[in-house]
Design a protein that fits this description.
Layout (H helix, E strand, L loop, with lengths): L19 H8 L7 H13 L3 H21 L4 E5 L9 H8 L4 E6 L2 H5 L12 E6 L5 H8 L10 E5 L11 H10 L6 E7 L5 H13 L9 H5 L6 E2 L5 E2 L21 E7 L2
Parallel strand pairs: 1-2, 1-4, 2-3, 4-5
Antiparallel strand pairs: 5-8, 6-8, 7-8
């Protein structure tokens, strides 16, 4: 199996500034984070103690969505903004349901590249690959991913906990349009996204913490989130809180009944 596809231009890891992917890793109990990540993470937990559980609820949605997609015949998955590997990874869930599933992960964070080998161990019947690329570099993603995926056939595109780090001014909606534009009819789009709808005061405090560290965070309303699925057929149960999406497809996250939902999720089909 080939190693991660990259062009050798990855920037060095800056451990002096917090990074959302490493903070997410810390919330999930991982070890691929630095003091700056833990410091901001601890400040967020002081504002909203349920943040680590929220991270697990978001991760659990990805697992359930992947099972649902595999159950609906999808055998190709493109996960953009994959983040630091945390088992079970998307390919493990997909290939447990469909051993012949083919998965491509994509991220631009150099620390993700450093751990990408952990993402490349799949079944002999299927395939797993990693592409180092920015989400906006759609041409590069398509070029590299076509070594593993057939974009003439349906692909499930996962944008899990990615778009709330992209402002409207930076082209969040245009990015989704470009990415879905490269997908064949019958493909799917799965998104999870933070919202302030359920906890506005805490969300504002967290947003202030991000701004103080020159990080972008854009919690969106239900209507703003729904707009990402323009032109797609949203699958049941529709636009819902993360823990409400097909809960029968996975076990509840311990403690999820004690927190406010982290955000909205949905899966849409390209007609």
């Amino acid at each position: 199996m080939p190693g991660p596809a990259n062009d050798g231009t990855a920037a060095a890891v800056d451990s002096s500034r917090p990074h959302p992917a490493r903070m997410y890793d810390w919330f999930l109990g991982g070890k691929d984070n630095f003091a700056a990540d833990r410091a901001l993470g601890q400040q967020m937990v002081a504002v909203e103690p349920g943040v680590p559980v929220m991270a697990r609820v978001n991760r659990a949605f990805m697992h359930r969505a992947t099972r649902w997609l595999a159950g609906h015949g999808v055998r190709q998955f493109l996960d953009i903004g994959s983040g630091i590997p945390t088992e079970p990874n998307l390919h493990q869930v997909a290939q447990a349901a469909a051993p012949d599933a083919r998965i491509v992960y994509c991220d631009h964070d150099p620390i993700v590249l450093a751990h990408a080998e952990a993402l490349l161990k799949g079944t002999s019947q299927g395939a797993v690959d990693y592409v180092q690329a920015d989400a906006w570099d759609v041409d590069r993603i398509l070029d590299r991913a076509t070594k593993t995926l057939d974009f003439g056939q349906p692909v499930a595109l996962s944008l899990i906990a990615l778009l709330h780090f992209v402002s409207d001014e930076d082209g969040a909606y245009e990015l989704v349009d470009r990415l879905t534009g490269m997908l064949a009819p019958g493909s799917y789009l799965a998104i999870s996204h933070l919202t302030a709808d359920f906890h506005p005061e805490q969300a504002q405090q967290v947003d202030d913490l991000y701004k103080a560290n020159t990080l972008t965070l854009v919690p969106r309303t239900r209507d703003q989130f729904t707009a990402f699925f323009t032109g797609l057929e949203v699958a049941g149960p529709g636009i819902v809180a993360a823990e409400k999406w097909h809960p029968e497809l996975g076990d509840p996250v311990p403690g999820q009944e004690d927190i406010v939902s982290p955000g909205y999720v949905a899966v849409g089909r390209k007609p």
